[in-house]
Write the structure tokens for this entry.
Amino acid sequence: MFGLFARAFHAGVDHLAFQLVRSEGAGPATEAVSAGYGAFHVFATLNLAILAGWIVLALGAWRTGVLGPVRATALGLTAALPLGVLKGTTPLSLVALAGLCAALVPLGLVLLREAPRPSRAAVLRWVPLTLVTLGLMVLLGQAG
């Protein structure tokens, strides 16, 4: 769970950097990001939780029989994703994401085929409620 907080922080910094380019231009944005890049932030202490989280998830999925050893190993490869802010795509990150897909896509397809389907009444009840909730979340999020 701590790793998710760190990833959310990284995504926020990435978003800020890209918005700086849009509002201030590439030069000033590069200058601002360069000045603060590498500065201490408390979420950096959670980087180990990000790495360990994928491995713990893979081991748990293997030990419970949800994933076999090959797919659990593929899921564990996700720990190789680069950590931090403004990390680009690398060959290693593509391998890590391919492992994530190899582990979870077959599981998702099995669930779609074999899981019980919701009733028509449940769908008619929950889809409008979900759409209204999402709409309210967007409005409240934009209002600050």
About this structure: The two ends are 25 Å apart (CA to CA).
